[in-house]
Amino acid sequence: SPIIVWIRRDLRLSDHAALHAASATGRPVIPVFIRDALVDGLGAAPKWRLGLGVDHFAKSLAAKGSRLILRSGPAVDVLTALVRDTGAAGVYWMRAYDPGSVDRDTKVKAALKDLGVEAQSFAGNLLFEPWSVQTKQGGFYKVYTPFWRAARTHDVPAPLPAPKTLPAPQSWPQGEALEDWHLGRQMRRGAAVVLPYVQLGEQAAQGRLGAFVASKVADYADQRNLPGVDGTSCLSENLSLGEISPAQCWHAGRRAMEEGKQGAETFLKELAWREFAYHLMWHSPHILTSNWREEWQAFPWNEDERLAEVKAWKQARTGIRFVDAGLREMYVTGRMHNRVRMIVGSYLTKHLLCHWKIGQAWFEECLIDWDPAANAMGWQWVAGSGPDASPYFRVFNPVTQREKFDPDRAYVDRWIAEGRKSPSAEALSYFDAIPQRWGMSAANPYPDPVVAVDEGRKRALSAYENKGF
Ligand code: FAD
Questions:
Q1: Boundaries of each Photolyase/cryptochrome alpha/beta domain copy (predicted)?
Q2: Phi, psi for 421 (deg, rounded to 5)
C-alpha cells in the first residue's frame, strides 16, 4: 500500500523531509495537492503565483516518473477519501505554522489516526521549530536581538537530497485539472505584466541562491538598503512557496561566511527575521489579525477603505515619489524592496493615520512573495503596534529617506513616469497594468501630495500624544 505525500507550500523535491521519508519506505508514493479553503482565501497575486508553482512542481514530479494528484475540498475529506480509495498506509506532510493550517492539520491527523493510518508531519519549512527556542524564563522571544543570539547557535541540519526514486502506484487515483481551478482568475494584471518578473521553481530558486552567494553577498550589508540596486537575493518569492528551503539558504550563507564573504552574516540575520516572524506567529497568532500590543486598540486608526487617501495610496498616486515608486513596483513586479516596504507602510499608518490592516491586506493582494508571518510582523513593526517595533513617534520622512537610500534617484526614476521626457519602460508598464477606471496617465503631471510630509508627521504625532502613549 502506498504513502500519500500531501504537498502544500513546499513545492520542492530536495530538502523535503516528507517526500524523502515516503521514498525511504520503498512503497509507492502518491503526491497530492489540495485546493481547500485556505487556497481559495489567498489574495489575487499569491493565488496566481501558487498556480504557477503547482504547475511547475507537477512537471518536476512527472520528470521523475511520478505525478501530482490535484483534488479540491476540505483536506480532511479529500485525504480520508484518498486513503480509502488507494489503501494508503500513511499520509506524510511538511508542517505549516499559521493558525489556519495548524487547525486544519490537527483535524486531519486525528481523522487519519481514527482510520488507523500513519499520519506524520515533518519539520523543514523553517530553520527550527518555533517552540524549540526559548528564553531563559521559558517563554518566547518578543525582541529580535536575543532571538538572533539564540538562533545563530542553533544547529540547522544539512539539507536532504532529492529522493532518488518516487515509485508510482499500480494505478493513479483520479485528479482534477489545474486549469479548472482558475487560480489566476482574480489576477487581472497577471500574465502580461508580472510574469516576466517571476522566477519559478526549485531550479530557478537554486540559481538565485547561487548567484547571490557568488556575486551579491559580499556587498549585501551595504547594498541591501538601496532599492535602486539589485543587491538582495530575491529569494522571498521562492521561500514563500517552499521552492527552496530555509536550510538550503542558511547553509549557503554559512559557507559564504566561512569563505570570509562580508555580507554573509547579515544575510543569515535576515533569514533569522523570517524565523522570528514565524516564532511570533506561533506563540501569538493574534499578530495576524489585531494589534499585537493591546493598548493600540484605542488608537484612532482610520479603517475606511473608501477614504480618498487610501485610494490614492493603493493606486500609487500619493504625490510622494518614494512611496508611489514602491507601490508601483509592487503592482508591476509582485514584489517591493524591503526599505520601501517600510516607507510605504510608515506613510500609510502615520502620515495617513490608516490602520496597518489596510496595508497588510493590499500587500496580500499584490505580492508574489506574500508570507502571512512576515507580512503581519512587517506591518505591525512599521505601525508601532507589534513586538520589537519601530516606535510610533519615529515617523519615516519619505523625502529624506529617498535622499539617503536613493541618492541618484535610480529607483524613483525607474518607477515614476510623470513629468519625465523619456520615462523608463518599467514606469510606463505601470500604466498598462492598472485598470482604466483609476483615471491615471503617464502624460498627466505628477500629483500633489495627498498629505504633505510635515503636516502628516505633525498630525500623526498629535494623535499619538492625545492617546497618552
Ligand atoms: P533578502 O534581503 O535577500 O533576505 C533574504 C530572506 O530573508 C528573504 O527572502 C526573507 O525570507 C528573509 N527576510 C528578509 N527580511 C525580512 C524581514 N524583514 N522579515 C521577514 N523575513 C525577512 N517578506 C515576505 O517574504 N513576504 C511578505 O509578505 C512580506 N511583507 C512585508 C511587509 C512589510 C510592511 C515589511 C516591512 C516587510 C515585509 N517582508 C515580507 C519582509 C521583507 O521585505 C522581504 O522578505 C524582502 O524584501 C524580500 O526580498 P529578498 O528575498 O530579496 O530579501
A1: 1-127
A2: -65, -50
Q: pLDDT tens digits for 34-91?
A: 999 999 999 999 999 999 999 999 999 999 999 999 999 999 999 999 999 999 999 9
Q: Which CATH class is domain 126-158+194-283?
A: mainly alpha
Q: What per-residue confidence (pLDDT) applies to 270? A: 98
CATH T-level fold of 294-463: DNA Cyclobutane Dipyrimidine Photolyase, subunit A; domain 3 (1.10.579)
* ipTM exceeding 0.90, yes/no: yes
Pocket of ligand 1 (CB under 6 A): 224, 232-236, 239-240, 270-271, 273-274, 277, 338, 341-342, 345, 363, 367, 369-371, 374-375, 378-379, 382
Q: What is the pLDDT of residue 192?
A: 77
CA dihedral angle for residue 286, residue 144, residue 261, residue 210, rounded to 10 degrees:
-10
Site to substitute for ligand 1 among 50, 233, 270, most atoms within 8 A of C-beta: 270
**What's the CA-to-centroid distance between 89 and ligand 1, angstroms?**
39
Q: In the predicted model, what is the mean pLDDT of residues 15-20?
A: 98
Measure 466 CA to ligand 1 centroid, in angstroms.
33
* Ramachandran category for residue 439: left, alpha or beta (phi over 0 → left; psi -120 to 50 → alpha): left
